Amino acid sequence: MQIHNFDIDLFLREYWQKKPLLIRNPWTAWSNPLEPDELAGLACEEDVESRLIERTGDNWTLDHGPFAPERFGALGGQPWTLLVQAVDHHAPDVAALIHPFRFVPNWRIDDVMVSYASDRGGVGPHFDQYDVFLLQGLGKRRWRVGGLCDEASILLPHDELRLLATFEAKDEWVLEPGDILYVPPGYAHDGVAVGDGCMTYSIGFRAPSQSELIEGWCDHLVDTIQRDDRYADPDLQAQDNPGEISADALARLRGMMTQKLLDPQGFARWFGEFNSSRKYADADWRPEEPVQPDELRARLASGVALLRNPASRFSFIRGTGDAVLLFADGQSFDCSGEAAAFARQICAQDHVLASPALADSPPCLTLIAALIDQGSIAVEED
């Protein structure tokens, strides 16, 4: 799947995190990848995050799934919207919608949320802290986009919905199947279904906050540093006033902290593992039995395809020479030679055709077996 007549360099230069952009149906032939009944079925499953938003007048109600199948048949004539998170984890055709947007690095991609709305259904005027491409799948939706918001923007009193108390639209469009609206972080926007059967795919991105980085990195350091690594001053000299904390002591104390806090290699490994952790930590995609080395070697030699789990997160950091540090689902792997080449390839492609070189390389076999055993990749079935 590819977006045609879309200038990526122009988009990144003029629009990315700067201003909204409407892209009228850029597909050769748009085809909706998921049926509404399939979306409703996902919302009934225990391990899928879903929400149902209903509006009666000025009142908004929010319920969390999983939902009983009969719940959808009991919905009345009031506007409602079903939201299902991370549908790309469960539907390969939905996961394929991310491919055209992979000019944004893997580590910034979050998931694909899918919404289905009845006539006049929506989630209300709001703003997000992340970039999003809103792709119309079925039906029509009227999008209104306002100005920039921040944490000081006044919200309606609701425990779970972050709805803007005031909203003034600056632009307005009706999106039809295949149309895309890009909305940068912080821009107020409001989407309302025009008629029944409105289905929208939200390709969302991640941006770690400063507080998240500081908290996560410091928590990691506290868990890993030696408890008996204490302040020492073997060159201590008598002071004129014992109440003074000297400049030398402060410099030594500050050095104890910054030595770890400013460790670039340590931070790089931590961030790769932190950022590649799965969206849902409790999800277990591991095979029932660990892969057998001899069987894996034979399968690779036969030229099978290795498939990346749509729910997995892959990225890497370049090292010296051809070495890379691969991250997959919160784990890190030091790779060089043919293993590094495979690591770069599996990060760039969702499936990789095996070659005899992989089967003949012990480091590759070890890496691939580890990725299979943790559920990050799988061997394609015959």
UniProtKB/TrEMBL annotation:
One Pfam family it belongs to: JmjC_2
Q: Which InterPro entries match?
A: JmjC_dom, NO66-like, ROXA-like_wH
Known EC number? 1.14.11.47
Q: Keywords in alphabetical order, please.
A: Dioxygenase, Iron, Metal-binding, Oxidoreductase, Ribonucleoprotein, Ribosomal protein
Matching SMART domains: JmjC (SM00558)
**Which GO molecular function, any one, fits this protein according to its record?**
2-oxoglutarate-dependent dioxygenase activity
- Its protein name is 50S ribosomal protein L16 3-hydroxylase
Taxon lineage: Bacteria, Pseudomonadati, Pseudomonadota, Alphaproteobacteria, Sphingomonadales
